[in-house]
Amino acid sequence: MPTSRLFLVLLVAVGLVVAVDGCAGLIVRDTNNVPAKTGKVLARTLLCLSTYCISEFVMDDVKAKDTERQGRAFLAAQVGRMTYDDALSEFGAPTSVGEGSDVFTALWTAERASVYSIGTAIGTEHRGYRMQLNFDRTAKVLRAWQFDRW
């Protein structure tokens, strides 16, 4: 491959990485006003076209990490406060419940698989989470929690 063509390919690749990396600021949030939301949607549309929509995958990942961070903070604040009944109303019925001598464990899990294509390439993605909440058997109050996302 000639040097000038290689340079052009590298330049385009670096441009795409920079464009995709800057996408987190374009996430539309509830707190944005209407002009900001409109501007972000317009910029995302143009960016999507120029990056073969790779930017949207990056923003989905950033949004998921944002949501996970908020969820972890919420659970950390609920230790000693959240009851099992509160957890049921917040998260719905658990996938399973395990009994112990001093505690019982409620487990929520979910997994999804998706297929996507970019140009002629086809890929798959598996995402899911596992949330385990340990409650005091007598008081039914949250003692500990664990959350994993993939």
How would you characterize this protein structure?
With 150 residues, the chain is of the alpha+beta class. The protein folds into 2 domains: 1-67; 79-150, no CATH class. 46% of the residues lie in helices and 29% in strands. The chain has 4 helices and 4 strands, in the order ααααββββ. It has helices spanning 3-21, 34-50, 54-78, 84-91; strands at residues 96-99, 103-118, 121-136, 142-149. A 4-stranded antiparallel beta sheet has the order 1-2-3-4, with helices on one face. Strand 3 and strand 4 form a beta hairpin. The model has no long low-confidence stretch (mean pLDDT 80).
Give a brief rundown of this model:
This protein has helices at residues 3-21, 34-50, 54-78, 84-91, and strands at 96-99, 103-118, 121-136, 142-149.
Strand % is 25-35%
Q: Please, how many helices? A: 4
Q: Give the helices and strands as they follow along the chain.
A: HHHHEEEE
Record field, number of beta strands: 4
Low-confidence stretches: none
Q: What overall geometry do the principal axes of the alpha carbons give? A: elongated
User: For the residues shown, what is the average pLDDT?
Assistant: 80
